[in-house]
Amino acid sequence: MSNIIEVEIKVEQIIVYKEESSWGLYGCIPVKSDDTNIKLNKYGNMAVNGVSHKLEKDCIYQITAEEVIDPKYGPQYKIIRVKQDIPTTPERQKEFLRALTTELQHKAIYDVYEGCDVISLIKTDQFDYKKVKSFGEHNYQILKRKVLQNLELQELINDFPETLNFNILRSLLAKYSSAKILGEKLRENPYIITEVRGVGFKKADEIALALGIATDSPERLTAGILYVLYENENNGDTYITEKKLLSKAFELLKVKKTKILSALENVPNVINLNARYALETTYNKEIQIAEKLIEIEENSKKLDIDIEKFLEEEQKQMNIKLTERQKKFFYEFAEHNITLLIGFAGCGKTMIQKLVNKLIEKVHLTSKQMAPTGKAAKVMEKYTGKESSTFHRSLPIHLDEDMYRNSIITDNVILVDESSMCGIDIINKLLKAVRNDVRIVFVGDSFQLPSVDCGNFLHDIIRSGVFSVTMLDQVFRQDEGGILDIVTRVRNGLEFIDNDFVGVKKYGDNCYLVACPQEEMERKYFRYFKKIIKKYSPDDIMTLTPTKKGNLGTHKVNNKIQSYLNRKTNEEEINVKFDNVEVSFRKHDLVINVKNSYNVCTLDNEKINIMNGDIGIITSVNKKENNLIINFDGKNVIFKGENIRNIRHSYCLTMHKSQGSSAKSVLSITDKSHTYQLNANLLYTAWSRSEELLVIMCQPKVINRAIKKVENMRRCTMLQEILIQKKNNLEKT
Question: Which residues form the ATP-dependent RecD2 DNA helicase-like helix-hairpin-helix domain (predicted)?
C-alpha cells in the first residue's frame, strides 16, 4: 500500500531539473525537524522528485508526495502536488526574492528595504529602484515580471483542485502565455483543458464539477456534445445521427435529452444535415475531396499511345500473359484522370504497377509514387523499383489548411498505394497539392482494414460509381497451396483447419500452423521464434499479435524477444512504462516511431520529419541526459524526455500496425484471449504481410470463429453521397 504524505519542505539543493519534461530531483529538509513521518536518506535529507514547476533553492513549499523505496538510493518522495504560500512576512519574502535575483542584487535590495513588504511595493510600483545600488529600470522590469509571473503561477496552482496536475497546467501555459490569462480562461470554461493531448471530456468534467460548474451549464453541454462527435470520428464515422448523438450525450452527461437538443443548436462549428450531425471542418473536407476529384476527372485527356500495341510488346518482353481485366485497366488509365486499381493478395497489382510506370515513361510524363506510411512506401519502392515516399514527406502535412497551394506536387501522374489506409484528412491534403489535370491511380485491397482515421475514402469512391474501377479478383498460384491459398480462404470465409486439431500442419512450402493449448502459447511462440531467427535476421521477421496488452500483447512479447536478441548488459538503458509494462530501451534495439514528429534535428543539424511507422535502430543511450540516439534510414536523431514515449520496440507489432508493410517471415500469435478482437480482415491483413514464411500460432477454434466474422466496411460518411450528387448536377448542366 502506498504511503502518501503531506509535508512542508525547504529546498537545499537542485540536483537536476529538465525543462523539456518539467521533471526535477531535489535535496530537501522538512521545515519541522521533529516530523517522525519523514525518512531521510544517507545524506541526511529528503530526496524529492517528480513533475512540477521548478522548485527554487532556499524556498519553502507544501508538498503532497508518495513515499517510495529505491533499492539503490533508499527512501524517495515522488511529487503528487506542490503548493507555495504567497509570501507575506518579510522573512518569507526575502527567501522568495533570493530565488529570483543574483546575490549582489539581493543584498542591494535588502540594504535599502530590510524588513519591508517588498512584494507589495513591486506590485504597486512603489519600489524605488533608483535607491538600490546598481539596479536600473531594466533590472527592475525583469524582477517585476518574474515576481508577477511566479505569484500568478502559485495562485493558479493553489486555486485549482488536485486533479489539475502540473502536466496539464504546463501544456495549457504553453498556449495561454500567462498564468493569469489561463486562470481567467479556466474559471470561464474549465473544459478548455480538453485542448491538452491525452485529456478527454471525462477528465475535464471531473475537474469542472469539482470547481462547481452546473451539470446543465452551456459550457458542459457543449463540451459533452463535441466529445461525442470527436469520439464518433475516432471510430471512423464522419457524421452521427441525431438519435445516436442524443443517446450517447445523455449517457455521458446524465442531463435531459431536451436540454441536450436545445444546446445542440448553439454548438459552434457543428452542422445539421437532415438530423445527421458533423463537425463542419470534416464535412468541408468531404466536399472538397468530391469537388477536386470530379474537377480532375473532367479535365481528362486521352493519352496519345496505342495501348494494344504497348501491352503486346510488354507481355512478350516480360514473358507474361495478362488477363482481360488486367488489360482493361490500361485502357481506363489512358482515358481517365482518376482510376482505381483494386485487387486482393496474389491478383497481380504489383505487376500492373510496374507496367503503369513503363507506360508513363513511354508517353514522357513525370510521376510520383506515394503511400500512407513509411513501411508501405518502402514495400512499394521494393516491388516497383521506383522511388516512393510517404504523404508526409511529399506534402507539408504540418502546415495549416490555408497555407496549402495547388501544384506543390507538379508531377503528371500520382500512384497512391494502400489506399484503403487513407483517411479523408490526408486525401484532402493530397488533392490540395496536385495539379488540376493530374492523373491519379488509387491502388488498394478492399478486404484489408479500413483507415484508422475518419472517413471511408476507398470504399466511398468505389461505391459512388463516379470513377473508373478495375477489380482484380483472380488469384494466381493459389493451387500451389501455402500462404496465398490460406489468405484467399480466409477472405472467402472458408475454414482450413479442424477445430480439434492439435499439433503442426504444413500448407504448401511456406506456411505452418501450430495448434497448441492456451497455457502453452507463451512457451511455444518463443520456441518458434528461436527457430525462425536461425534462418532470418531480426529485420526480416515480423511477429504479430492483435493487441498491445496482456502476456501475448506487443509490450510483453517485445520484452521477451529483446531479452533473447539484445540481452541486458552493464551498458546504460532507459526505462519507460507502457500500459503498466516496464520497457527498457538499449543500444542496438530495433524500434518504431508511433507519432509524427516534424522538423526533428539530426546530429548533423539537419531538420527532418520522423513519421508514424518509421523503423529505426538505437545507436546510443544516455540515461543521465534522458535521451536516445536513433538511426532512421541513415539519419541519427535525438529523442529525449517525453518524446521517448513515442518510441516502441518493433520486434512485435499489432496486426493493425503491420498493414502496408511486409517481411520475409511472419510469426502470427492468435490466442483464445484474442477471440473478440479478431476477424477475417485482420487475419487476412496480417498473414498477407509474409513474403516467404508464415507461422500461425493458434487454437484452431479461435481462427475458425474469426474467419466467419467480417469487418463492417460501411461507415457513416458523406463522401459517396456528395460525389453522386455533384456528378448528377454536373450532368444536368
Answer: 166-239
Q: Is 140 exposed, middle or buried (0-12, 13-18, 19+ CB in 10 A)?
A: middle
Nine-digit cell at 412? 503528371
Q: Does residue 719 lie in a domain region?
A: no
Residue at grid coordinates 497455457: 519
Alpha helix stretches (DSSP H) within 533-610:
554-565
Query: Distances in Å between the alpha carbon of 13 and those of 46, 47, 142, 622?
Result: 10, 10, 25, 23
Which three cell numbers mark 140?
Answer: 527592475
Q: Both 462 and 595 in a single domain?
A: no
Do both 697 and 558 map to the same domain? yes
Residue 169 lies in a domain: no
Residues 6+ positions from 45 with CB-CB distance below 8 Å:
12, 13, 27, 28, 29
Lowest mean pLDDT among 139-153, 258-272, 683-697: 139-153
Mind listing the pLDDT tens digit for each residue in 138-155? 999 999 988 888 888 777
DSSP state of 646: G
CATH number (domain holding residue 13): 2.40.50.120
* Alpha carbon distances (Å) from 47 to 20, 31, 56, 94: 21, 14, 15, 25
* Residue-number span of the structural domain to which 27 is assigned: 3-83
Q: What is the mean pLDDT of the chain?
A: 91
Q: How far apart are alpha carbons 272 and 244 in whole angstroms?
A: 14
For the cut 60, the answer to whether the pLDDT of residue 406 exceeds it is no
Res. 548 pLDDT band, cuts 50 70 90: very high
Q: What is the C-alpha separation between 10 and 206, in angstroms, rounded?
A: 32
Q: How far is it, in rounded angstroms, from Cα 200 to Cα 252? A: 12
Residues 24 and 125 in one domain: no
